[in-house]
Amino acid sequence: MQIALHPMLVHFPIALLFASVLFDVASKALTRDSLREAALWLLGLGLLGGIVAAIAGGQAEDAAEKAGVAEALIETHETLAYITLGITAILFLSRLLLRNRFSTRALAAYLVMATVGLVAVSATGHTGGNLVYEHGAGINAAQHMSVKG
After folding, report:
1. Where in the chain are the domains?
2. CB of 61 closer than 8 Å to CB of 74
3. Minimal CB count within 10 Å: which of 2, 40, 116, 124?
């Protein structure tokens, strides 16, 4: 029996990316530098977690296709994941280049891009959930039979 790592790992980057944005908003509202620093760390850990989850997803792809899940659905999920990773990487690198210091205008632009990133991670999670709950990705044939029967 192979352990399904992808579904165990995906929750970390999702939570970390959302928390990063919340910490940024709280940092601005409360004028606390420590919250801005925490947001940077959460973003970096979210990016790292996303990379690990993407690698595990790539390994799970063959099993999902063998289970009869349409390749186009898997590719949509994978594309959204790469878009999310790209946005997250841009956000992280911009923070490093700005030394994690933002003017009011730069922070507004950053938060707009971060919101786009949250929409992307939500869409990625939604398509992943559909792969499992509507199309049975990651569920073996014996489990399918007991659910349907």
Report:
1. 5-148
2. yes
3. 2
